[in-house]
């Protein structure tokens, strides 16, 4: 049995370290699935298992724990950056500007409440109390990358003199943070006297068709001599409007034309276009006519299909530009991007690797599939080089010192901020540099979850030794109480203001709150009570900016205020 005892006690052996992480992560994942009141802590439970392991002395070399912690953090934030990058800048569009401003206000209010609690309830002469409040705040807003950014910044400020671990404050505040986010959104409902049925009905009935979205079908006779002998592709480019010719009558024969089909003067065509474009199309092609050759429409079953975007020509194009409904006779109901389901808003840009849910008649869906590429084999090859090139650039970028007057040390974005920013830029503009930034959803989620698990396990094990003294015998109850205040006060203020001032739909507010707190459980709850996609739209609109600001703010607070 000596070999087994040595396996668990010899801290500097590879087998011991692998065993430590495997046990902590696996047990944390399984315990995180337990739901209380329909709410679970998910993978964050790894942190609590790690704390328990560290408390009982089941640990490893500090240098190894630190390496795995930092590597996990880099991997986690980089994959998040690739995920949110394609939609980061588009989220500031007309529809999302107000939501992003409100999310920013919520983040600033979190900081304000944190400082208020710090000055009211803690000894400001103790240099460890403000950093501990930073950890508490990030537990209250359920943002793990921010915790990592803060810990890294604290290391640069305190160095070897840091005799505390902010993960303790994070762990105290996190459980009530998850519950408080959902509870505060429910409180907004009662404060603003929201009728859920009325809100659902408003979402269902309120989206009225506009001329650019409503399809228009007409039979035309070609009388423009310019068209004679030219292909449909040439005509579409010249017209500079999206149209589809679904039927062609040429010399008494009805056919299904393709983009290479030549058209001639005197031909009769069935044209589908946006209602707003109909007058221009008629003026260019020829007069609208009644025909006797059209086929009687037979009842056809609608199909729903996920189509993957692999055609590079579609990269960056918006849904409104492509006019799926008016031109192709289909509806795009959802976009799946790097594991996130997004509402198919008109201002969303398509990117290679996106999966779009298309609903329509079989032939129309097939037409869209051909246009999008829909070739899975083009996406199967892993693009590992791009990931590690991005990490290299991100680490260099994060290490650039920026001297700011009044700061004890130069500002650095660090191992969290640098890779995050580079990943966002690569996710959005990587194709300009001929870098394939797409990773399959499963690959992205796998790498991200491995990184998060390594980070949480390392933080927990390192914090475990002093957790009992810090929390139970120290200010643990204060961290719980102040964390709860940090969670609910900004949500109540911003959510109520968004409802009263801007008249946002309640479900949009729920999604935006979940996104600004980067909290998937809150989004899941919102989706469970809403019949439409409003929560997902609100979430995806504010999530990229919120994640970026949470990480950046953590470092700014530490570097400016904790020196």
TrEMBL record:
Q: Name one GO molecular function term.
A: monoatomic cation transmembrane transporter activity
Q: Which UniProt keywords apply?
A: Cell membrane, Membrane, Transmembrane, Transmembrane helix, Transport
- What is the name listed in the Swiss-Prot or TrEMBL entry for this protein? Transporter
* Topological type in the membrane: Multi-pass membrane protein
Family annotation (InterPro entries): AAE_transporter (IPR050144), RCK_C (IPR006037), RCK_C_sf (IPR036721), YidE_YbjL (IPR006512)
Q: Where in the cell is it found?
A: Cell membrane
Report the PANTHER family cross-referenced here: K(+)_H(+) ANTIPORTER SUBUNIT KHTT (PTHR30445), TRANSPORT PROTEIN YIDE-RELATED (PTHR30445:SF3)
- Sequence similarity: Belongs to the AAE transporter (TC 2.A.81) family.
Record keyword Membrane present:
yes
Alphabetical list of Pfam families matching this protein:
Asp-Al_Ex (PF06826), TrkA_C (PF02080)
Name the coiled-coil region(s). none
Q: Does the keyword Transmembrane apply?
A: yes
Cite the RCK C-terminal domain residue spans from the record: 290-374
Question: Which segments cross the bilayer?
Answer: 13-32, 39-59, 71-89, 101-122, 173-192, 381-404, 410-429, 450-468, 480-497
Entry's Gene Ontology BP terms: potassium ion transport
Q: Which GO terms describe its cellular component?
A: plasma membrane
